[in-house]
Amino acid sequence: MSTLPAPTAPTAENGAGPTTAEPPDPDARHRLTAVTGLAALSLDAMASVAYGPEAIVLVLAAAGAHGLGFTLPVTLAIAGLLAVLVASYRQVVAAFPDGGGSYAVARTYLGRRTSLVAAASLVLDYVLNVAVAVTAGVAALTSAFPGLYGDRLWICLGVLALITAINLRGIVDSARAFIVPTAVFVGAILVMITVGLFRDAPVSTAASAGHASVLADNATSVGALLLLKAFASGCSALTGVEAIANAVPSFRAPAARRAQRAEVALGALLGVMLIGLSVLISRFGLQPVEGVTVLAQLADASFGHNAVFYVVQFATMVLLALSANTSFGGLPVLLKLLARDDYVPHVFGLKADRQVHRHGVVWLAVVSAGLLVFSGGDTNTLVPLFAIGVFVGFTLAQTGMVLHGRAARQWGKALLNGVGALLTGVAAVVVTATKFHDGAWLIVIALPLLVALFELVHRAYGRIADRLGVGRIPEPPHRARSLVLVPVSSLTLVTSKALTAAVSLGDEVRAVTVCHPDPEDRAHADALARDWALWNPGVALVRLPSERRSLGRPITAYVRHLAKAYPDTQITVLIPEAEPERLWQRLLQNQRGAVVAHAVRGDTDAVVCRLRFRC
């Protein structure tokens, strides 16, 4: 009987050799496909076409109409850098399928300290991206409806709360929610470019009519420095390209392959839109004016001042606001990797049912809300701080990939990454220098402070690990004499059950009660002692005098006394607490158990056991 040939094992990309088939992923429904990954992680990059070409035009406007003629060449240079970045981050995805992007690359090839610089730059960029995206989207809304301008901060906070709530349900849910806005925006831009290419002249200039031109009256010559500044400013359109490489674990298996497809699709769409818009700027001889965006002028020139014009504006506004979602997809994964390496609290590594790093999502939302309040919802306050961090990350990632290519003897890839590192490094220096007095100095200060914070957390975890003997084989367990203390204040069923549990746990059990000097408390303590003697539970009642109205200190002092007298004895403080059935009834409790537990845990090495009895 003939048999079917055995299936051939799939081969990994980039010559990694054969791999075994991956087991089914039970959480696949909570992970991204290439399409949903594009919607969830590329909104920042997609939305950048709304301000990237404008950034180029505004710089070149210093050289007058002649300077604007260099818009397309500068854009082509940026598109070339985009192609280099996409190729580089495809390599990053293949080499580091656990995510982390520039942090993972720098950690492997550039050293621990450099990797922390990369991580800090990404954290700052992600947080600023949320604030800038939300304020930019709301600014577009208030431009259309000026009556809402006074409430822009509350609108910003509302949009942020909406995006946070969607992401707390899972990255797949956020991707599904944002597929339609992304498709509408990309479709509108591509149709606008196509229609504009068939126009010999602008259909309408109503959008810019009555607005002052920002072309310089005393135009300067177009020199290398001006072109370099325009190139660096236009590179703001590249923010978000790294997000997919940072969040590879969020994709369905084969995760690396799906992430690479999403990266290529992002690069292709972004490149076509950037070049197409620049061609239209040159074709229509567009000049930047105050109060009207370049994208709005292009829509007006291509479609006319009609309903389609407003559709483009509305789609731009929505996508700008929602582009904050890129940070919610990338930063929690980065924080998970930092938590794994002991650079941030380990709580950021926890994952909820829907594959959501909720602590990272909530932390990002809280810090971004603080930035929104600080800026008053004003985009111009935040823009000078934006994009510097991502250029630092680009440069470090590609420098690391140069070393990766050398190690693998892939000289072509090493050269490609080297060129990219040089260009993004130059862009980082130029953007920092030109925006330094506008607020970029804050990033220059915040970056090393954040690295110092990572180091502080790492050292703290190192001391804890050394104290706990992490990585060393501990002594075998042995039985020690056990002494259990039970704080009591009255004779109840709770007291009886607590003592029953205590005698089951320890070799010796002592009940302790705190006695205060005022007559009422002293009478209560005497009554408890008499009732205890009559009850005779077989457990000694120890009275702990306290001159002050304190409950926790006398017990902790007694625990320390016992620990000194019996150094080989394991002391446990078992705290009985009644727990009412309904939540609101728990507010009626006196919280004595919590007070004692906090004091004992903070001042002694005794084991604290809070024994709750449901009423």
Automatic annotation (TrEMBL):
What would be an example GO MF term here?
Answer: transmembrane transporter activity
Q: Which residue intervals make up region (Disordered)?
A: 1-29
Q: How does it sit in the membrane?
A: Multi-pass membrane protein
Localisation: Membrane
**What stretches pass through the bilayer?**
58-87, 116-141, 153-172, 178-198, 264-287, 307-335, 356-376, 382-403, 415-433, 439-457
Q: Name one GO cellular component term.
A: membrane
Q: What would be one Pfam family of this protein? A: AA_permease_2
Keywords for the protein's UniProt record, in alphabetical order: Membrane, Transmembrane, Transmembrane helix
Recorded superkingdom: Bacteria
Tell me the Gene3D superfamilies matching this sequence.
Answer: Amino acid/polyamine transporter I
PANTHER family from the UniProt entry: POTASSIUM TRANSPORTER KIMA
Query: What is this protein called in UniProt?
Result: Amino acid transporter
